[in-house]
């Protein structure tokens, strides 16, 4: 006689200790990802805009960021690309809806 797997265990909700560990794990990963995103945004904001407006600093790393002019061009050059990507996303959603 064949033994069947216990299917009742698949539909049993997790215990409270498993659920609290899982939610803590998700909270920590969410906090790490949000913190990394905020840090990246602030670093880019400083490199692209604020470093050109603030007075020169004496630190060599910040001085190299202040003298770099390529990040200033990044915002105006990506604007047309963003517009095209938004249009293509809208077009693909329309085609998917009416397909």
UniProtKB/TrEMBL annotation:
For this protein, the parts annotated as crossing the membrane are: 26-49, 69-90
For this UniProt record, give its keywords in alphabetical order, as a comma-separated list. Membrane, Transmembrane, Transmembrane helix
Q: Name one Pfam family in it.
A: PIG-Y
Q: Where is the signal peptide?
A: none
Q: What is this protein called?
A: Phosphatidylinositol N-acetylglucosaminyltransferase subunit Y
């Amino acid at each position: 006689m064949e033994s069947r797997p216990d299917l009742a265990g698949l539909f049993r909700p997790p215990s409270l200790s498993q659920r609290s560990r899982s939610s803590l794990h998700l909270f920590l990963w969410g906090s790490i990802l949000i913190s990394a995103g905020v840090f990246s945004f602030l670093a880019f904001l400083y490199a692209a805009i604020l470093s050109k407006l603030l007075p020169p600093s004496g630190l060599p790393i910040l001085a190299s960021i202040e003298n770099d002019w390529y990040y200033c061009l990044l915002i105006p050059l990506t604007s047309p690309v963003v517009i095209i990507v938004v249009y293509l996303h809208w077009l693909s959603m329309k085609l998917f809806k009416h397909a």
